[in-house]
Amino acid sequence: MSKQYPILGSPLKVNGVTLKNRMITTSMSPGHGYVDDDNHPTDRLAAYLEERAAGGTAMIIQTICPWERTDIEGLHPLPCCYDESCVPELKKYMVDPVHKHDGLICAQIYYVHDFKPAADAKESPYGPSDIAVIPMMGGFKAMTLEQIEEFKEQYFNAVRVCKEAGFDAVEVMAGVGGILSRFMSQATNNRTDQYGGSLENRARLTLEVIRGVREIVGPDFPIVVRWSPVDFIKTDNGPGLSMEEAKQIAVWMEEAGLDLHDLSVGWHETSVPLTTKGIEDGHWMYIAQEIKTVAKKPVGQGYRNTDPTIMEQNLADGKCDVIAGLRYSIADPALPLKVMEDRTEDMRKCIVCCRCIDDVVSRGLSLIYCGVNPHLGPELDHELYPKADAPKKVMVVGSGPAGINAALTAAQRGHKVDLYEQGPRLGGCVKMSSIFSPYHERYLTYLMNEMKKHPEITVHLNTEVTPALVSSVKPDAAIVAVGGAPIGLDVPGADGKNVITSHDFLEMLNGHKPHGKKGLFNNIMWGGGAFFLKRYYTPSFAREMTGKMTWPISRNIAIIGGGLPGCELGHLCMETGRTTAIIEEKKKIGYDVSPSERFGLTSAFKKAENVELYPLTRVTAIREDGVECIQTDREGNEKTIFVPSKTVAITLGLDPNHTLGEKIKPMVKDVYLVGDCDNPGRIADATKAGYVAACAI
Fold first, then answer.
1. Right CATH number for 393-484+657-696 from 3.40.50.720, 3.30.450.40, 3.40.50.300, 2.160.20.10?
2. For the segment 268-292, what is each residue's pLDDT rounded down to a tens digit?
3. How far is C-alpha 688 from the geometric centre of its chain's CA atoms?
4. Which residue from 283, 276, 291 is spatially nearest to 228, judged by alpha carbons?
5. CA 685 to the chain's CA centroid
């Protein structure tokens, strides 16, 4: 029994099965590689599922397609359950790997938006009506009564196949804007037959499906229903579900045969941010709490559940009975086991970077990258830390996420590792990004804890690696992870005393006064800051001081560069009450921000009274009182503008930095350049690159 997480780590009976704890995964099919071009599950999917079952996940929910997919060009690949021929592969690659570790696996029958009403038909979006919430997700066809009957029969056939394959439960998808949720919502249902009009009619198809599933699976087999009591949808036809309507539907669902509510929030068309880091952990628990006022069966809540401490508190407060989520499981497949064993310091918590969702859902790619977990995609094809054939002497240069993951991986593979850091503390750029995102501070803390558990890694702080040092150390392999080179701006005034760069801050965090700073006051402050921060620094302390101090960021700032670095700084300045201008040559501010974050972030900028956005704007000069620019309108007309500001921040991102790597290549047999120094990217790219390089040695 867990002492820190007594409810989260405790079992729960759901009809005929018992969850070993209160943590289940929601479904997101991981895509290509996990399923082959013929829609067959692969060894990679088996490894993905087994890793999570071994990690103690109480129930894993995975999507299965109920029809045979003959034309999948442009479609996200899914394993299928259309007839008995699918059973052996479902059992071998999905059921058995989970059962091997006494886990439970639930089949979610895939009916989000698409339906294939006949063998020779093309799968496409269907619903009660042809109403589209937003044009980019249109094309819905209104289902005929005959197609509704075919839909149900197809559903029930898929359930039979999955039960025969050995799945422990079935999930009915009735949320996120899928077919059944569209029937239940007045916003997308304008039918006048028995499936439209009143709430009872709109809920009819969902209840018929649940009753039909119950008839097939019998009384003891669990039926999970994924549904959205709050959809944040409104069309000309009417509003989405009200909470009172959702409560009534919850009662009807239980009467029809539901055993576990798996609550989602919103639809895929919803414009309200749902899963991003701007939404606090546990924010959506009020929805589960409302459903629990009428529910007799357990209620699970998904979205924004990443911290076991908050999960436990929500359970203790009676807001829900089960924590449903996915990203916590992608980040750390063993998180449930660590909960049950009170291994809090070992937890690799999700940093809410949304890379997994953005790649799989928004970009149609496969699940390969996670901000904190490199063991996804092709890396699942071998064990986590494959033992090296022979131990080697490995030099790792740089201690950001690429460098530390490289050092930890190489050490656990059996190599002798020396990690070199030019500054006074480990962490690389994450030391600075943690100021903007407390979630990055989670990762920084995790990496530091991991380093403490591996004293066999020799750490060299305040040490600049030069070719001479490499020559004296004589490593068998070197992994260079020194970060990228900051992109400068070649305009008059770019070296002015009112100009700052992200690299200036990183230098100061590393205990060095940035070079070339003008003005006596500036030099004193940069020098004093470097002296202090060399001895004491935490991201939370820096975050607090940024809100209070007016140096080096004044109360009036112009940020040159509207990509991710500029947007992160802009958000911090907005939140701390600074008058902020963001200037970007491209059409869109936030052009490289993740799709999950971009809309919410730029909307917040547009709504904020203290933020002005200047897209399609080129800086021509920097003055002490602001920035001279040329702005282009949509017709291509140019005009000269002036953006007043006291501080100017240059945040144009990074270029590759191959200098050290190229110098030492003649001296070391195997040299790997990883992270931003090789290919500037995001934290997930660095995490993966460090791991992959260390596995290659």
1. 3.40.50.720
2. 999 888 998 889 999 999 999 999 9
3. 15
4. 291
5. 13
